[in-house]
Amino acid sequence: MPGQVASAEVAAAVADAHRSQWAFVLAATVRITGNIDAAEEAVQDAYASALETWGDRGVPENPGAWLTTVARRRALDMHRRAATARRALPKLVEQDPGAFDAEAIVEEATDGIRDDRLRLIFTCCHPALGFDAQVALTLRLVCGLSTADAARAFLVPEPTMAARITRAKKKIQAAHIPYRVPDASELGERVNGVLAVVYLMYTTGHTAPSGANLMRRDLAERAYELARMLRQLLPTDPAVAGLLALILLTDARRNARLDGPDLALLSEQDRSRWDRSAIAEGAALVREALSRRPPHRFVLMAAIAAVHDESASWSETDWDEILGLYDLLVDTWTSPVVQLNRAIALGFARGFAAGLAVLDDLSADPQLARYPYLAAARADFLTRLGRFQDARLAYEEAIVLTENEAERTFLKRRLAGLAG
Amino acid sequence: MSKYLILIFQDEAKAAQAEGESISTSYQEFMQHRSSSLLAGAALEVSTTATSVRPDDAGGFVVTDGPFAESKEALGGYFLIEAADLDEALQIAKEVPSGTGVEVRPVRVVSP
Description:
The complex is a heterodimer of chains A (420) and B (112). Chain A is 70% helix and 1% strand. By secondary structure, chain A is mostly helical. Chain A has a two-stranded antiparallel ribbon with strand order 1-2. In chain A, α1 (7-33) packs across α3 (63-88) and α6 packs across α9 (184-206). Chain A starts with 6 loop residues before the first helix and ends with a helix. Mean pLDDT of chain A is 87; it is low at 91-111. Chain B is built from 3 helices and 6 strands; from the N terminus they run βααββββαβ. In chain B, the strands form 2 sheets. Chain B has a 4-stranded antiparallel beta sheet. Chain B has a two-stranded antiparallel ribbon with strand order 3-4.
């Protein structure tokens, strides 16, 4: 039968369009509804009708444009029906005529949509919303995740996630958080806010802070897609280039991170399993972004990842270069976790005793008191210095502190392998 | 346009020291600069002069000395402003010379 498409194929096409086009379709629809909730409903309807229509008439050449047209028509229908209902009632209040010119909007070229997606992202990541709410809204509205999936990704009960999203949407509406791209004067700061959300999504997905799986791939992939979208929308922003590079250069090693069920350290990984094309792209982005001064913290973190990725083996790692990059990073970002990583680089560049001395100083920092990687790093340096008794205690501390099963297994393996 | 209430919270001890008859120059400058957005505003007497009035269980009222909630920082004044959106309201809020910062609350829109 002409035009008939197998249902599995249609379902796959709709799922693909959901993943790649959701933000585009929603952003274009919010423009005419002026209201996120109404736009979401119209977009959900558009995806539902795609499942039916594409089976009969085939998958359209441009699914995003098809879905946008259908969602916008649906939004206009909903608006007209509401307007009719209002007309049927005695006129109590003069209605705002609004900016609804149906056909003109549906026919409108999609030129403005680049900005629409940015508007959506900046609204979701507005600093007047709590950070948790920013992450939740971005997953829900920009990535199109269901509330249940967003809850699963962050290991919170679904009602908690639902309440978080509802509260945030209510604040957007009640406080009139604008749907716009910030002015040049505040753009840098606001981009940083968006990148913080994407980075948290990536790190949560890359090393799930708790639970049995080391990596929650779906979350890491959404973060990667968001970073790609931001790069496309803000092509000259060095911080955006830095975050995309960081994700590419870290993710390039993902297939080598697990050796069977066990966590493999950078020093143990089979480098032939690293993704060379991702490394090449990430390294090129780093070079581009490093030319802008002062370098953004994501650019420096990506540069450090690039030194590892481009090193032929662990023993050939250029630790002086890495230590130099950490020194720059510490200047732009005073985080105890960065201090910890710098101390590790110092240990490899200048000797483990020197590194251990800095790690011991950091142990006094209350922010690191329950941080398992500090104990793990001390355990490793103590082992390398032959202080096995102290190393044993440090491993035991790290095992207690980590909440990730794969990491715990790794640490236990290390502890069991200690000499003495 | 939307309305927002900017609530100015102050350290009462400091506010008491600065107490005077006239409005400080910095506030005068702020009010002049933002006159087109300001709908109303006032400075309040210290919270120790507050009186709380609460309904009791018997259908009457309990009148007590002092504010609803005791805290180091107390409501010291407010501005009612009109702004295009939250970003503009926050911009205005940043210019309030309170020293301690302010809270911005959207005014609820109610149908008549």
